[in-house]
């Protein structure tokens, strides 16, 4: 014969992180019966902290026939602000803390000399990070803000480089005779 298990209903709903475990224990009697003993284990219940609502910034470049300039706007499309006024400024990437934008700059449309710059989101503090006759392009902030990834042709072909946010410590990461480009950080920045 099969044992019949009848769970008892809890008078109150269980928390989201609760686990209900049952133990079947055989009883000695003329016909085998089983008793049901529920055990409730409650792990730490996470507290829900409301996420503060803030309006983030979006950095973008606006290309015209005379150049490309760097702009920022609120995530809802309001407050469009122009940050640069000359040359070709492209591939912006906002730092994880939202305070700075790294981007590539070249004086003319031809890809003769492209360097990486950083600027504050309010348009102040323009700083050149790379200074090489080759093209340094496609900068991207690491998710933790500790490094900037970019592509450089300074070794005769495209290589993946990383540097500190102040431009120091420029290091060739790929160091390959092939052309390496379009690098991205993993979401947690570990790969």
Question: Would you give an account of this structure?
Answer:
With 191 residues, the chain is mainly beta. It is built from no helices and 13 strands. The strands form 4 sheets. It has a 4-stranded antiparallel β-sheet with strand order 6-7-8-9, with no helix packed on it. Strands 10-11-12-13 form a 4-stranded antiparallel β-sheet, with no helix packed on it. Strand 4 and strand 5 form a beta hairpin.
Quick overview:
With 191 residues, this protein is mainly β.
Shape, principal axes of CA atoms: globular
Rg over CA atoms, rounded to whole Å, is: 29 Å
What's the main sheet like?
Answer: 4 strands, antiparallel
Instruction: Give the oligomeric state of the chains in this entry, treating copies of one chain as homo and distinct chains as hetero.
Output: single chain
* Weakly predicted, low-confidence segments: 14-20, 42-53
Approximate strand percentage:
35-45%
Q: Counting H and I runs of at least 4 residues, what is the number of helices?
A: 0
Percentage of residues assigned to helices: under 10%
Order of helices and strands: EEEEEEEEEEEEE
The main sheet orders its strands as: 6-7-8-9
**What is the distance, rounded to the nearest whole angstrom, between the alpha carbons of the first and last residues?**
57 Å
Q: What attributes characterize this protein structure?
A:
4-stranded antiparallel sheet; 191 residues; 0% helix; single chain; mainly beta
Helix and strand arrangement:
Elements: E1 18-27, E2 33-42, E3 57-64, E4 67-74, E5 81-82, E6 88-94, E7 100-106, E8 114-120, E9 127-128, E10 136-141, E11 148-152, E12 159-163, E13 171-172
Antiparallel strand pairs: 1-2, 3-4, 4-5, 6-7, 7-8, 8-9, 10-11, 11-12, 12-13
């Amino acid at each position: 014969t099969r044992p019949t298990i009848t769970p008892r209903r809890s008078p109150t709903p269980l928390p989201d992180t609760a686990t209900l475990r049952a133990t079947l224990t055989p009883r000695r009697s003329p016909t085998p019966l089983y008793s049901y003993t529920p055990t409730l284990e409650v792990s730490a219940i996470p507290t829900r902290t409301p996420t503060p609502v803030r309006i983030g910034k979006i950095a973008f470049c606006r290309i015209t026939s005379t150049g490309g300039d760097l702009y920022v706007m609120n995530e809802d499309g309001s407050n469009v602000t122009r940050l640069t006024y000359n040359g070709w400024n492209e591939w912006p990437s906002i730092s994880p803390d939202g305070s700075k934008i790294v981007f590539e700059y070249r004086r003319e449309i031809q890809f003769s000399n492209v360097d990486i710059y950083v600027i504050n989101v309010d348009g102040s503090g323009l700083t050149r990070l790379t200074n090489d006759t080759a093209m340094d392009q496609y900068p991207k902030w690491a998710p933790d803000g500790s490094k900037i990834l970019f592509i450089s042709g300074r070794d005769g072909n495209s290589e993946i480089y990383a540097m500190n946010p102040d431009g120091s410590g420029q290091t060739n990461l790929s160091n390959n005779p092939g052309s390496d480009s379009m690098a991205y950080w993993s979401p947690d920045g570990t790969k």
